[in-house]
Amino acid sequence: MRAILESTPRRSELILTFFATIVAGLLVIAVARSRAAKPAVVIKMMDMPASFEPTRITIKTGDTVEWENTGNQLHHVTTDPSAALKKNDVAIPAGAKPFDSGFLKPGESFSETFSVPGVYRYTCAVHEAKGMNGELVVQK
Ligand SMILES: [Cu+2]
């Protein structure tokens, strides 16, 4: 009986320490995620004229870019040659993976993190014929 009474506070301390460690760990993960999710650049997708703003940007390896549809029409961002009318409107460096947002409704956005340096050219399949193209340079 005495042994149980003495051990009880120690056990609750252990449980408290255990949960405090978990809470601290979750906080670290939450902070790391919010930092990783913050884009280096936000590119607006506009209707009139159909365009990416800014059209050309330079970022560093590891940066995240967010494309945001600020217009009232569907927009799209892709480096997929099969989605482009002109082959030269899309390009990715050797070793990089192509990306494609799918059609973005007004207010929607798409993010991509760049780990391979080089020149990326992308287009909006909806407005490629109107010249809605963009270029992204990823520096080492
Ligand atoms: Cu568009």
Largest sheet: 4 strands, mixed
What proportion of the residues form beta strands (DSSP E)? 25-35%
Present as ligands are: copper (II) ion
CATH architecture heading of the largest domain: Sandwich
CATH superfamily of the largest domain: Cupredoxins -  blue copper proteins
The tally of helices reads: 1
User: How many beta strands in the DSSP annotation?
Assistant: 7
Total count of domains: 2
With strands numbered from the N-terminus, the spatial order across the biggest sheet is 2-1-4-5
Mean pLDDT: 89
Poorly predicted segments: none
CATH class of the largest domain: Mainly Beta
- Give the topology string: H per helix, E per strand: HEEEEEEE
> What is the 3D form?
elongated
Specify Rg, calculated over alpha carbons.
Answer: 24 Å
Helical content class: 25-40%
Topology overview:
Elements: H1 2-37, E1 41-46, E2 51-53, E3 56-60, E4 64-69, E5 109-113, E6 118-123, E7 133-139
Parallel strand pairs: 1-4, 3-7
Antiparallel strand pairs: 1-2, 4-5, 6-7
Short structural description:
With 140 residues, this protein is an alpha/beta fold. It contains 1 helix and 7 strands. The protein folds into 2 domains: 1-38; 41-139, Immunoglobulin-like (Sandwich), CATH 2.60.40.
Keywords:
140 residues; alpha/beta; Immunoglobulin-like; single chain; 2 domains
